[in-house]
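Hi all, a correction to my earlier message: I attached the wrong file for Phosphoglycerate kinase. Here's the right sequence:
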Amino acid sequence: MAKKTIADIDPSGKTVLMRVDFNVPLDDNQNVTDDRRINMALPSIKSVIERGGRVILMSHSGRPKGDGGDAKYSLKPAAAKLAELLGQEVAFATDTIGDDAGAKRAALADGGVLVLENLRFNAGEKSGDADFAAALADGADIYCNDAFGTCHRTDASMVAVPQAMGDKPKVSGFLVAKEIQYLSDAIAKPERPFVAILGGAKVSDKITVIENLLGICDKVLIGGAMAYTFSLAQGGQVGGSLVEKDKVDLAKQLIERGGDKLMLPVDTHCGDAFSSDCNKVVVDAGKIPDGYEGLDIGPKTAAIYAETVKAAKTIVWNGPMGVFEMPPFDAGTKAVAQAIADGDGTSIIGGGDSAAAVQQLGFAEQVSHVSTGGGASLAMLEGQEFAAVNLLDDK
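and the right structure:
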């Protein structure tokens, strides 16, 4: 799925309309508290301005109603943080396609950067409105998609805008190119053994992922709270553990279909309350006593999973093994992360909680790739086609 990147075009004297993901957390004083997503977009932005191009950045932030705006969702703090990181002035437009955006776009000089206000302040973004998209695309010479976190969506900025660009160049930014390389290409042509580790709370969130990966992986390891739904499907006792009773039949089908490929926990670390200082007990899987709930995979499971992961040549991980934010129920997640770090396989960490876990546990630098988009990485693991990516120019 090789697509042209921003490096493949000459932006000198041209206007590049770039979709980025500046959906960053803010404190009560509208200060950016985590600038990782802005930092990740810097290589693509610098590639344009350092070669004499002008860049107009568009992004969403939060989930406003599309009725004109709410100050707490403004992209102004992100623009200020970007200026700080770039070490140069960054213009900010108080609208997306209105008078201020028009004036700031017209005034933008070569090497300049303009951030438009939150795309979702306009209802046309979520509805994929063609007129809104045409207004955004007007005057731009090149479209660049560097927002992997929304690549699985059909928002106007992701699909209708590149469509409105007609025959003009449509390329990926470096961040999207890296995500495609790892998530798409690694799954299409994995080095084997290929092992997937799936955790998190709900089987329902990962049904299609499990089904797809059972068809292409050598082993699929299950952890997190969803393991208790599988345990219930095998007739086990789950105490007060989080389960999806309406998904038990589906779990039975997945167990039958998975055979030896599907690996389930053999023991469980339980607590009698959701806290670090609760009473704790380790029991065999399916033997959780009343009054207790499963909060992590047990030590035997952690050892088996670690051995499987260490031997793998390609690893995809989405979802923690237990309540990783609350020691000692972070032990299972830590064991898997350590095994990935100790092995020599290509390791791809899906976004969301698994990305937060490797960051928190200190393993982020020891894995091959940490995805920036939880929903998008899941959708790619499901084997979904992305219209936003398909629209970009092939190499």
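Sorry for the mix-up. The domain at 190-381 is CATH 3.40.50.1260 (Rossmann fold).
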